[in-house]
Amino acid sequence: MNRPIDTLPRDPTALRPQKPGPDGPAPARPGDVQKPGAGAAGEGTLVVLPPGPSRVWRWLRWLALLLLLAGAGVVGWWEFGRPPEVAVVMPWRGPALEAVYATGVVEAVDSARVGTTVAARIRELYVDESDTVRQGQVIAQLDDRQAQQRLADARSRLALAEQELARDLELAARNIRPLQQVQRSQEARDSAAAAVQIAARQLEEYRILSPLAGIVMRRLVQPGETVAANAALFEIASPTPLRVAADVDERDIARVQPGAKVAIRAPAFPDRVISAEVTNMRGRGETATRSFRVEALLPPDTALLPGMTVDVNLVVSERADALLVVPTAVRHAAPEGGRPGAAHVFRVVDGLARQTPVTLGAVGPTAIEVREGLEADARLVADPPSGLADGATVVVKP
Prior knowledge:
Strand content: 35-45%
CATH class of the largest domain: Mainly Beta
């Protein structure tokens, strides 16, 4: 007859006869079960052991799995099920400047690219970059030997023509030469004189003079170099006055007016803002860059130097009592045509986040102007979390 599994001893020595002690049968141990009629001499005792370790570990694993699932459910509800906590801010009143941004370059009002009208070899250069020059100063000399020979030849022809004219006049006075011959001699003399003037003027072209007083910004050639006609040799600019030339996008140029205020900031002077006014607006735009050139005259004592790159803000409107909000409260829809989409904010109304479209004005690093769509007493979500939907329940942080 098979024994029950739960009463089968795991150790063969667990079931053994119990010898009676001197005072009678040995007392039963915990876990022992007496057979019916047991206790007589020579009869054994059946031992029942607790469940094996495999069953205990199985229950422990199920318990751990249940605890893990319960913890995951609590964490999931805490992260996704509970309403988000948000901070609330209020709009405020303050000044707002609406400006158009552009990049510009500092340049001299009076500047020139100095070149030559003749092709020749450079014999000598008298100035270098950063040198100060006077108006009319000789700054370079070209090889003019051929021009000098042409001038000498022209002068010789003029001398010969004058001699011919003098002889014809003398002969005409004695009625030996006709007046027509005298007239031809006079024309030949005048032509020779003009050739001398032309040769002398061409000789002057081999001396390069500065057209204005200023500073040599660039020297484009070296001594001994052969240059072509109309080639540029120097760039000279007057140190004062200076101006900023900015390229304004064609979408913004209609808002800029002559005389508008301009705030200029240069990387060389990050803590300094230079004020100026629009003095000139070019009537024709650049088709390649789709921009219009706007110029602003700098003050005489400016520290900016020609060639510096600057950031330009052209003020197009100014309001002293504008409604302002923190920049983090404003969200935009998907971009349209390279610009941010429609703007909106989230108002907190009765514990719900209400998406509200707004019209923006001036935009700055610390505040954004709201022109339409918002009341002054609205409670706004300071930094709407990602995925916040219209009508979602929110919890206001204390």
